Amino acid sequence: MKLNLNLKAKFQRFCLVLTCLIVLIFQSDIPNLKALPMDNYQGEMVIEELRLKVPADAKTVWLNAEKEIWEPWLSSQDGFLGRQLFWDKEKEEALLLVTWKSKKLWKNIPMAEVNEVQQKFEDNVKTALNLGENPFELIYEGELDKQG
């Protein structure tokens, strides 16, 4: 009888361990295991995200400089699909979303060229506002990968 109880207890432990293993296996996020690392996958559309400090009294100058300097240059870039500009009145912040055909095409643009356009943008803004420095501080830059 004692042997029978010992076997029954071992069988119950075995079933408990097996149940825990099954739960753990099905709780793991299998799709994430199959996902490609974002840095290594350059073929999908990507959105460049930029946040700037844009004071209310300089909003019009910012929009004009964006239109006069960045818009024509961006339109000439291989892989550029479009952009959206947003402005938050309460925070006095701008959000720029620039859509690229692929991360590879975006990242192939020489930084020296980007810096040259940025300098033209800043010169335009400083002249328009009669300032010695660019008032539009970069708060954040990142990227968004399209999902689904």
Main attributes?
alpha+beta, Alpha-Beta Plaits, 2 domains, 5 helices, four-stranded antiparallel beta sheet, 4 strands, 148 residues
Describe the structure.
The chain is of the alpha+beta class and 148 residues long. The chain folds into 2 domains: 2-34; 42-145, Alpha-Beta Plaits (2-Layer Sandwich), CATH 3.30.70.100. It is built from 5 helices and 4 strands. It has a 4-stranded antiparallel sheet. A hairpin with a 4-residue loop joins strand 2 and strand 3. Helix 3 (59-75) runs antiparallel to helix 5 (111-129). Residues 30-38 have low confidence and may be disordered.
| Number of E strands | 4
Q: If strands are numbered along the chain, what order do they take across the biggest sheet?
A: 2-3-1-4
Low-confidence stretches: 30-38
Chain-averaged pLDDT: 84
The third-level CATH topology of the largest domain is Alpha-Beta Plaits
**What class would the helix/strand composition place it in?**
alpha+beta
Based on CA atoms alone, the radius of gyration comes out at 27 Å
Under the CATH scheme, the architecture of the largest domain is: 2-Layer Sandwich
Assess the beta-strand content as a share of residues.
Answer: 15-25%
